[in-house]
Amino acid sequence: MFLPGKIGAGKGVTLIELMVTLLVLSVGLLGLAGLQLHSLQYTHSSYQRTLVNIQALDMAERMWTHLAEPLSELEEWRSLNQSSLPEWKGVVTQTPNQPNDYMITISWFDHHLNGAQTFSFSYRLRLPKLE
What we know:
The protein is of the alpha+beta class.
């Protein structure tokens, strides 16, 4: 009920409601900013993993094109990809007791996701025997 003599009585409540609304809005915007930050970190990590997958497949294709000497382009592949990621390291090893099995392993350093750590990706390749 509106009383003509009490015009200014509701202004303090409106100011408190406005302050609470601004507080809730600012907490929500901070949460949204944190969500955006995590989204960017995961997107960057996904980009790195995709790049490493493409690099491993590139080496596998190089090995397929040189079946007589599968590791002939290893140094060229390493020099081509060395600067693609921080502390990038590419290693191709032959599986013991299986002369046509290879393991392509790429490791790199990522400081964006959950602190700094080294990640590794391995790709197994089995080439046909030449007779």
